[in-house]
Every structure is written in structure tokens, then in C-alpha cells.
Design brief:
The chain is α/β, with parallel strands linked by helices. It has two domains: 163 residues, 3-Layer(aba) Sandwich (D-Maltodextrin-Binding Protein, domain 2); 96 residues, Periplasmic binding protein-like II (D-Maltodextrin-Binding Protein, domain 2, 3-Layer(aba) Sandwich). The chain is 43% helix and 20% strand. The protein is built from twelve helices and eleven strands. Strands 2-1-3-10-4-11 form a six-stranded mixed beta sheet, sandwiched between helices. The protein has a five-stranded mixed beta sheet with strand order 7-6-8-5-9, with helices on both faces. The longest helix has 21 residues.
């Protein structure tokens, strides 16, 4: 009888423990409402909610190029009910720029890679530059002006890689968004813009701008005729991926269920439609492969920023 009672007492907490998820989930979007990241996060939330059987809401925590939102995730309960969808910037770039962010590859638990945001260079439609080689040759003769979403942003680092590979002088004008830089290119006040290519699709479709090349390992499907920098003989690769994250310490069983739900989401019609609308590329990587990508990205950006003489502030 005593043994039976002990067995019942030991089993009680396990029986009472609810299966994940036992309540609604939230996905932190560390960038602005209405942004590309926000749109993909909402499509991802809809699919996860269907698969997991609980509502999933998107909560905006913007600021610090994603740092505010990812720090909020890192301090959340490690039970899988609070997640974040974000580019790798707060984990792979910002820790090299800002002291004491508390972020880095090991600060959170990667769940899955969701999209690649292909980066590239756009010029005005009537620009004399037809290739990245043309642009670099001109930059070696005179300084070229360009805009990007900000100093040490991924597109600006792409230009740094271009300069290292092909030479030239590039005079940077930082903006708050890709759209603002593109407007200056359209007006003829800048030679080119370094951007997330998806941001330039509307202007390119309207015949106002032209893509010279991408920093990805693949061509953008919206511009299949435009070669990558590597295909053009310039070793300037700057990848920009975005994925789903959980707090560090989240149980393995919970992470495995979230990873499986994420894989399902990438096959959903809703996410495919949003990706097509925003001209981003769905790309699934599981936890292990995604963690390796983040670690490699962190190390690569550390080297590039040191070469640029950037010191954390």
C-alpha cells in the first residue's frame, strides 16, 4: 500500500503536466509593424496556430536593429510559448557593434530558418553601369555615392565586401529604410543603393531602377537574368536569413515540436503567398543547420567589421 501511494504521488506531477502548448503563443517581431518581417511573422503565426492547436499572436518589440525584441525573447520563460521571428542581424552583427547586448549565437535557441532576404545593388534605369564590374571600375576612378538602411547594416557590409574584392571608393549615405535610399537613386542624387532586393522590386517593375547583382549564392527569382556577384567574378557574398527562435533552455521536446510545425508552415499556401508578395525566398533549415549558419555568420561579420576598424560602442 505504501509503495502504491508513493508511486501515485510521484506520478501525479507528470500526469498534471499539460502537453505543449497548453495556452496561446506569441511571436515577437523586433522590427516595425507593416515591414516585411512583420508580414512573414504573421503568416508564420497563422500556420503555427493551425498546426499546434493554439492561437499565435504577433507582438511588436522594435528598436536597436532588432536588439530590443531579441533581448525580450532571451528574458522570457523557456517554455516555448514566447518565440521571435527575426533576421540574424541582432545575433550576428549587432553584438559586434554594441557592448553588453547580451546577444550572440548562444543567447537564444534556434528553431528553424524561414526565409532568405537576398541583398543586392540597384541603380537608376538609365545608369551607365550594367554590371558590378562596371560599378567597381568607376569607383576606382572616382568615389561613388550610395545609400543603405544604415551603417554596418547587412547591405552596407555587402558593399564593404565588394570594395575588398574589387576595390574602389564608396561614399555612404545611411537611411532609415531601403525605400528612402531608392528614392534618392531614382532622383539621381545617389549612384546606387545597397538594399534587400525585395524592397526594390516595385521600382524595378515600373522601369525606374535596375538590379546590377546580388550578394547571395543564388539569383533572385524576380530577376533571373541578373547574375550574383560571385557569378560576375567578384567574391562578395553577404547572406541575410531570417528565422524562428525560442528562449535558451527551452526543452528539447518542445523545440522539436516547434521545428516540425515550422517545416509545415513553409509548405503552407499562406506563407508562400506572403513570400511571393514580398519577393522573399522561403528556405527551411532545421535547428542544427540553422544554429551552424548563425555561428558562421557571427564569426564572418566579426572578421569583416574588425577589418573595417569598427569597435563596439
Amino acid at each position: 500500500m505504501i509503495r502504491l501511494l508513493l508511486a501515485m504521488l510521484l506520478a501525479a506531477p507528470v500526469a498534471a503536466r499539460a502537453e505543449f502548448p497548453d495556452r496561446p503563443l506569441s511571436i515577437i517581431n523586433p522590427y516595425a509593424t507593416g515591414s516585411q518581417t512583420d508580414a512573414v511573422a504573421r503568416a508564420l503565426a497563422e500556420s503555427l496556430g493551425t498546426t499546434l492547436g493554439q492561437p499565435v499572436v504577433v507582438v511588436n518589440r522594435e528598436g536597436g536593429s532588432g536588439v530590443v525584441g531579441l533581448r525580450s525573447l532571451a528574458s522570457s520563460a523557456a517554455d516555448g510559448h514566447t518565440l521571435a521571428f527575426s533576421p540574424m542581424v541582432p545575433l550576428a552583427i549587432q553584438p559586434h557593434l554594441l557592448r553588453n547586448t547580451g546577444l550572440g549565437p548562444d543567447a537564444v535557441a534556434p528553431v528553424c530558418n524561414v526565409t532568405e532576404n537576398i541583398l543586392g545593388i540597384m541603380v537608376r534605369e538609365d545608369s551607365p553601369f550594367r554590371t558590378l564590374g562596371d560599378l567597381a571600375a568607376a569607383a576606382r576612378q572616382r568615389g561613388l555615392t550610395y545609400g543603405s538602411p544604415g551603417p554596418n547594416s547587412a547591405p552596407a557590409i555587402g558593399v564593404a565586401r565588394l570594395r575588398k574584392a574589387a576595390g574602389g571608393e564608396y561614399i555612404h549615405a545611411p537611411f532609415r529604410s531601403d525605400a528612402a535610399a531608392l528614392l534618392e537613386v531614382k532622383a539621381g542624387r545617389l549612384d546606387f543603393a545597397a538594399i534587400v532586393v525585395a524592397s526594390g522590386v516595385p521600382m524595378a517593375r515600373a522601369g525606374e531602377t535596375r538590379l546590377l547583382g546580388t550578394f547571395s549564392l543564388r539569383r533572385h527569382p524576380e530577376f533571373p537574368q541578373v547574375a550574383t556577384a560571385r557569378e560576375q567574378g567578384i567574391e562578395a557574398v553577404e547572406l541575410s536569413a531570417a528565422g524562428l527562435f525560442a528562449p535558451r533552455g527551452t526543452p528539447e521536446a518542445v523545440l522539436a515540436r516547434l521545428e516540425a510545425a515550422c517545416r509545415t508552415a513553409l509548405g503552407s499556401e499562406g506563407l508562400r503567398n506572403v513570400a511571393a508578395r514580398w519577393a522573399v525566398l522561403p528556405e527551411f533549415l532545421g535547428r542544427e543547420a540553422f544554429a551552424r549558419r548563425i555561428a558562421e555568420d557571427y564569426e564572418s561579420h566579426g572578421r569583416v567589421l574588425r577589418e573595417l576598424g569598427v569597435e563596439p560602442q
